[in-house]
Structure to design on (133 residues):
């Protein structure tokens, strides 16, 4: 699939401007910026002059994900992580197990695949992105 580079740069520029605007707006109203980004992402498909872009996995892996991981590592205090490690670990474990079971049961409910395939798939996708949380 061919992607026009100027269209890609334009859409990335608009995306980055929206991210900066959402972060500024979230600081102004006192709401966490990830909530504003999710709301912005829900609104964007309905903006008529923005065309949907099909981005390659390499763009995400090498351009978009590293700054997210860097920002999360930069703003995370090691003392806070050490202090709350048992709580973080228990929430992560319990959350992943609950998510795997719920997803597995929903897959079984809405599809006709085998039980072990449903729970194998649900266990693969149940692990959350630590940067997103």
């Amino acid at each position: 699939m061919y992607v026009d580079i100027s269209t890609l740069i334009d859409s990335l520029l608009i995306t980055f401007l929206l991210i900066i605007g959402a972060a500024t707006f979230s600081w102004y109203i006192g709401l966490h910026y990830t909530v504003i980004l999710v709301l912005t992402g829900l609104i964007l498909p309905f903006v008529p002059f923005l065309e949907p872009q099909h981005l390659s996995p390499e763009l995400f892996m090498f351009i978009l994900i590293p700054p997210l991981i860097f920002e999360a590592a930069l703003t995370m205090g090691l003392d806070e992580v050490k202090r709350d490690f048992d709580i973080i670990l228990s929430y992560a474990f319990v959350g992943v197990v609950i998510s795997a079971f719920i997803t597995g049961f929903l897959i079984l409910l809405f599809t006709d695949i085998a039980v072990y395939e449903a729970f194998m798939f649900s266990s693969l996708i149940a692990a959350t992105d630590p940067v997103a949380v």
Q: What stands out?
A: The helical segments are 5-29, 33-43, 57-75, 78-83, 85-110, 115-126.
